[in-house]
Amino acid sequence: MHPFIKHTGIVAPLDRLNVDTDQMVPKQFLKALTREGFGRILFYDWRYLPGEKPNPEFVLNFPRYKGASVLLARANFGCGSSREHAPWAVDDYGFRAIIAPSFADIFYNNCFKNGILPATLPEEQVDELFKRTEAEEGYQLTVDLPNQSISDAHGLNFKFEISDFRKHILLEGLDDIGLTMKHVADIARYESSHNPAPTMYDPVDLKAFPPQ
Amino acid sequence: MYQKIWDAHLVYEAPGEPALLYIDRHLIHEGTSPQAFAGLKAAGRKVRRPDLTFAVMDHSVPTKDRALPIVDQDAAGQFRALEKNCRETGVRLFDMFSRNQGIVHIIGPELGITQPGQTIVCGDSHTSTHGAFGALAFGIGTSEIEHVLATQCLSHFRSKTMHIVVNGKRPRGVSAKDIILAIIGKIGIAGGTGHVVEYSGQAIRGLSMDGRMTVCNMTIEGGARAGMIAPDDTTFAYMEGRPFVPRGKDFQSAVAAWRATTTDPGARFDDSVTLDAAQIAPQVTWGTNPGMVAGVTDRIPDPNAFRDPDQRKATVRALQYMGLQPGTLIVDIPLDRVFIGSCTNSRLDDLRAAARVVAGKHVAKNLKEALVVPGSMLIKAKAEAEGLDRIFRDAGFEWRDAGCSMCIGMNADVLPPHERCASTSNRNFEGRQGKDGRTHLVSPIMAAAAAIAGHFVDIREWNVDASE
Question: Can you tell me the ipTM of this complex?
Answer without folding.
Answer: 0.91
